[in-house]
Amino acid sequence: MLQRLNRAERKFLDGPRSRWTELKYAFAIFYQMIIGLRKLHFIGPCVTVFGSARFKEDHPYYKLTRTLSGEIAKLGFAVMTGGGPGIMEAANRGAQEVGGLSIGCNIVLPEEQNTNIYLDKYVTLDYFFVRKVLLRKYSFAFIVMPGGFGTMDEFFEALTLIQTKKTEKFPVVVMGVDYHKDLLEHIQRMILEQTINADDLQLILFTDSVEDAVTHLRKFSIDAFNLKLQEARKRLWIFGEWK
C-alpha cells in the first residue's frame, strides 16, 4: 500500500496524465483535506513546532523542546507537530505533561513514520502539501527547532506566507542560536544583497531562552490577536491522567 502511494506521488510529478487519472488524484487530495479539516476543527488556537525527527530523548534539543512546549501549553495554546518522533515527540510530550492539548499531523513516508504516544488527537496523511496546510491553518505562532530539510521547508514556507501577507503576521521563533547561526548569517546576506527587506528580519526571533520565547508569543500572538485562551487543564491521577 505504502509503495503504491509513493509511486502514485512520483507519477503525478512526471507531467500530464489522462484527465480521469488527474481527476481521481484531485479527489483523493480533496478527501484527505476534508478529513483533516473535520478532525481538527475544534482544537482551538495552536502553536506549531517544527523540528527534526532524529533527536532522542536524552538530547539537549529534545529537552529544550519539551520544556518550551510545556510553557506554551500553560498559556492555553494547543501544541501541534508533525506527529512523529524526535522534536515532534518532545513538543507533544511537553504539552501533555502539563495538561495541554497535543495534536499531530502525521505523514506516510517510505521509511514509515509512526505517530508518537503523546498525542491527544491526530490525523495521518499521504500528501506533504495537505499536511503543511493543516500545520499552518490553526496556528497563531510557529516554533522552529533544529532540524533538516523538512524543517527548513516548513520554516521558509510559513515565513514566505507572512512576508507576502498571504497570512497574518504570526510570530516565528527560531530556537537554537548556535545551530542556526549560519542560517541567520545567510538571511543577513539576503538583506545585504537586497533580495529581502531589512524589516523582514523583524519577523523572526532567534533565541535560546524559553522565557523570551514565551514573552514573544504572549506579545505578538495572544495580545496582538486578542486571543481568549483556556488554561491547560490539570491532570487528575484518580482518572488515570498521570503520564
Q: Main attributes?
A:
Rossmann fold, single chain, 243 residues, alpha/beta
Overall description:
There is one protein chain. The protein folds into 2 domains: about 1-40; about 45-225, 3-Layer(aba) Sandwich (Rossmann fold), CATH 3.40.50. The chain has 8 helices and 7 strands. About 45% of the residues lie in helices and about 15% in strands. The chain is an alpha/beta fold. Strands 4-3-2-1-5-6-7 form a 7-stranded parallel beta sheet, with helices on both faces.
- Average pLDDT reading: 91
- What percent strand? 5-15%
| Name of the top-level CATH class of the largest domain | Alpha Beta
Radius of gyration: 19 Å
Termini, distance in Å? 34 Å
CATH topological fold name of the largest domain: Rossmann fold
| Cα shape | globular
Multimeric state: single chain
- Helix-strand topology string: HHEHEHEEHEHEHEH
Q: Please identify, by name, the CATH architecture of the largest domain.
A: 3-Layer(aba) Sandwich
User: Based on helices, strands and strand pairing, what is the structural class?
Assistant: alpha/beta
Task: Specify the number of helices.
Answer: 8
Q: Helicity level, as a percent range?
A: 40-55%
Strand order of the largest sheet: 4-3-2-1-5-6-7
Number of domains: 2
Total beta strand runs: 7
Give the uncertain stretches in residue-range form: none
Q: The biggest beta sheet, please?
A: 7 strands, parallel
